[in-house]
Amino acid sequence: MRSRKWMMLVVGCLGLSVFVQAQQATQPDEATQRLAHDIFKQLVEINTTDSVGSVTAASEAMVHRLRDAGFAESDIHVLGPNDRKKNVVVRLRGSGKHRPVLLIGHLDVVEARREDWTTDPFQFVEKDGYFYGRGTTDMKDGDAIMTATLIRLKKEGFVPSRDIILAMTADEEGGTSNGVDWLIKNHRDLVDAEFVLNHDGGGVLMEHGKPTMMEVDATEKLYGDFVLTATNPGGHSSLPVPDNAIYELADALTRLAHFQFPFELNNITRAYYQRMAQFEPGQRAADMRAILNTPPDLDAVARLSKDPIDNSTLHTTCVATRLSGGHANNALPQRAQSNVNCRIEPGHSLEEVRQMIEKAVADPKISVQFRENNGELLDHGSDRHSYVPPAPREEVFGPLDKVVSAMWPGIPVLPAMSTGASDGVYTNAAGMPTYAVSGVAYDRDDIRAHGKDEREGVDGFYRGVDFYYQFLKAVTKD
User: Fold this and answer.
1) Euclidean distance between CA atoms 49 and 108, whole angstroms
2) What range defines the domain where residue 342 resides?
3) 133 and 250 share a domain?
4) Given the DSSP bridges, would you call strands 203-207 and 210-220 parallel, antiparallel or unpaired?
């Protein structure tokens, strides 16, 4: 009897231990949250724009933190093609049971003008439950979260089943020195991995503050810039004519604005809408099912396309982003140009889209050229396509399902297509299947990346910190 009581006590203690461990796994770690906050603030206040900023300065700031955390010099590398565009690569050594996992995130940010913002875009400001600053959502939050997570794992003495490599890089947002592309071409040994986790995408989608799903970007659209140019002999401004270069370009852009690229679904977006239809209400759910029919219900497509996110998911999109024209205030313009930025559905080349823009513009006097990353204008676009979506990997989605279920009970994990573009285009092309995973929550009605007063919810950020530690540890523990 005494033996049985002792056994029951042991079992009870073991059960309590498992319960305590489970509770600890889901409890926020305040020290890591503070560290992530401090790194976040530091990165936002380092200007990393292409025009005047320095990615190298941000990389070196992270190196100091990694060294202080105990990472060996041999596991930290700062390197790049020029003095302003150096990337940082750090490796947390594992047992070698499996091939490495690569974490990627870009340190550069989109340009921001102080006069356009309510706050200084390069000052980290917390107010009204949000963090404000350029890069708060795209994507210095992710850089801070990944760095803080790796430092926490290092200090804990955690030995993962595979090396964890973190690469924070330059020129994802533009410029001529894309860091992921450069590292793969010049130092593949430093970043070679079995698969890639990209913090520049995915996340917890909210509707008016309520979490509705965890998105994982399993494919993405292709980025492309095109330049429309109108030319005209010009003349004296006292003798206006209706066919001056600016008017001609404006007419062409108006036609393009009203042109809709064909409706398309791929294996990822089809599966996405099949799942989403189970959670959406009324007409919206019916429309999602209707677009899956053969042939699709085009009225349902039109209704869904009124939502900007659905529209971008279902179509290639092109939008004018910059304008220039004229040579004098008192002369008819002889030349006018516009940059048109496109996000292209998988399976279509840049040249194919250039030709479709020509068709939409329907004016032989307007030239349509492809703009290379280095700014060169070409009469023929590249034949590059978006990558084939990788198959879901159990070592990614298995742990993800469990962590999401514990942190956001009841919301589904949905593979989706990013309507933007990321450095995943380079890692996938290099044979490293890439998944954009983030635990940061964002509201579909408050997406400010690349825009004025970019911001991220304070609570959403801290939950993202807690999530990433649990997720990354789960992915690399066996």
Assistant:
1) 6
2) 222-378
3) no
4) antiparallel
Per-residue tokens: 139: 């994507």
* E-only strand ranges, 190-302: 195-198, 203-207, 210-220, 222-231, 235-236
Same domain, 432 and 341: no
Three-class DSSP category at 467: helix
Q: Indicate left, alpha or beta for 56 from its phi (over 0: left) and psi (-120 to 50: alpha).
A: alpha
Q: Nearest 5°: phi and psi at 85?
A: -125, 50
What would the pLDDT profile of 38-63 be if each residue is shown by its tens digit? 999 999 999 999 999 999 999 999 99
Q: For residues 331 and 253, state if they share a domain.
A: yes
pLDDT tens-digit map of 313-332: 999 999 999 999 999 999 99
| Among candidate residues 329, 359, 378, the one where a domain is terminated | 378
Do residue 201 and residue 260 come from a single domain? no
- DSSP-derived letter for residue 71 is -
Q: What is the pLDDT of residue 26?
A: 56
Predicted model pTM: 0.84
Name the average pLDDT for the chain. Answer: 92
Does pLDDT of 4 surpass 60? no
Sequence length of the chain is 478
SS3 at position 216: strand
CA distance 80 to 86: 4
Residue that finishes a domain, picked among 319, 351, 378: 378
Same-domain pairing of 353 and 406: no
**Is 419:305 a contact under the CB 8 Å cutoff?**
no
- Assess whether 357 and 391 both reside in one domain: no
Residue carrying the six token digits 């008017």: 247
Separation of alpha carbons 406 and 403, rounded Å: 5
The answer to whether residues 343 and 450 belong to one domain is no
